[in-house]
Write a structure and sequence with these properties.
Blueprint: H1 4-7, E1 17-22, H2 32-45, E2 49-54, H3 65-75, E3 80-84, H4 86-92, H5 109-117, H6 119-124, E4 133-139, E5 143-148, E6 163-166, H7 170-178, E7 182-185, E8 201-204, H8 206-212, E9 217-219, E10 225-226, E11 229-234, H9 235-241, H10 243-265, H11 268-274, E12 280-282, H12 286-295, H13 297-304, H14 307-321
Parallel strand pairs: 1-2, 1-3, 6-7, 6-8, 9-12
Antiparallel strand pairs: 3-11, 4-11, 5-8, 5-9, 5-10
Helix pairs in contact: 2-10, 3-4, 5-10
């Protein structure tokens, strides 16, 4: 097999191809996946292809920033983008990726990595042509868990009537509503800690608690869903760049996913250390976990009613029940 690096023959470091990557975050790169991907592209191409990261892509105050980024990437305003897979179904009506957000499905990072870095992940990145995007890789990320601000979010009853900040996600919003909570979208400017007004809690990864300055009560063993990311390119931009560049981008994205999967598999101890001391860590009992899983069963029924999501969910459930990943 010829490396994608060797196939990029018409470009040189003196005449590089620069691709613009839309990044939701301002200032620093924000997502580890973005920095790793940009480095891999430069390394594999010998500097002949470069990724220019454009931070703060959406306007301040946009509460639906992930949908905005996906739409603008598909329209060609950027060449590349990185966004959580949760928003793809809500934005484009393509539901295969929704199954990755089935609540309480994954118990550990090994199973997440197996699912998104194996053959199933290769299938999931292939987006329909009508969307206008080329999926480069699905990248595993940290688990998002409940952080209660005005109350603990441990058992099913704790969620009833709670206003929970979430993101654009058909599955995420359905899960919260099924538990009796009220899902709301909030922009980063509305979320300053320690107690943002108007919400009772969030679904968040551990390192986000320190970043935002929250206190509250973090339910450690309720792994709602892993924050999987989609590295994608605008389809027309890929066609203009040619097959060699597309192959290079896919290789760089796959290496990025594999590298991040390796850091996550042993990462729960690091995650726990990231929780600030003023945040109380709580755990759900086995009975409370079972009650939560029963309570969200209607979300699984909804996923199974959609053919594309059902196919992926069934493969994931088979692999997890047999102790394997998503292959």
């Amino acid at each position: 097999m010829v490396s994608a690096t060797r196939r990029v023959r018409f470009l040189t470091p003196n005449r590089p191809l620069t691709l613009r990557l839309a990044n939701l975050y301002s200032g620093e790169v924000g997502e580890p996946a973005i920095a790793l991907f940009a480095d891999e592209v430069a390394r594999l191409s010998g500097g002949s292809v470069r990724v220019r990261v454009i931070g703060g892509w959406v306007r301040r105050g946009d509460r639906d920033e992930e949908r905005t980024l996906l739409n603008e990437l598909a329209s060609g305003l950027a060449d590349l983008g990185c966004v959580a897979t949760r928003a793809v179904g809500a934005t484009f009506g393509f539901h295969s990726l929704d199954a990755l957000w089935a609540p309480l499905l994954f118990a550990d990072y090994v199973s997440v990595a197996d699912a998104v870095c194996g053959p199933l992940g290769d299938e999931l990145r292939e987006l329909p042509r009508r969307i206008g995007l080329v999926g480069l890789a699905i990248v595993p990320g940290p688990f998002r868990r409940p952080l209660g601000l005005t109350r603990a979010l441990v058992c099913a009853a704790d969620w009833r009537g709670a206003v929970i900040r979430t993101h654009t996600s058909l599955v995420g919003e359905a899960t919260l509503r099924t538990l009796g909570a009220v899902p709301v979208l909030r922009h980063a400017s509305e979320l300053a800690g320690p107690l943002p007004p108007g919400i009772d809690g969030l679904e968040i990864q551990a390192d986000g608690i320190r970043t935002w300055g929250y206190a509250g009560q973090f339910t450690w063993n309720v792994r709602l869903w892993p924050r999987t990311l989609l590295l994608a390119a605008n389809r027309r931009a890929v066609q203009r760049s040619g097959a060699a560049v597309e192959a290079l981008l896919r290789e760089a994205a796959a290496r990025t996913a594999t590298r991040l999967a390796g850091t996550l598999e042993d990462g729960e101890e690091d995650e726990a250390r990231a929780i600030p001391p003023e945040t109380r860590v709580v755990t759900a009992s086995a009975a409370e976990l079972a009650e939560l899983r029963d309570a969200v069963e209607p979300v699984y029924e909804t996923l199974r009613a959609e053919p594309a999501a059902r196919r992926v969910l069934e493969r994931l459930e088979r692999a997890l029940s047999s102790g394997g990943g998503g292959s």
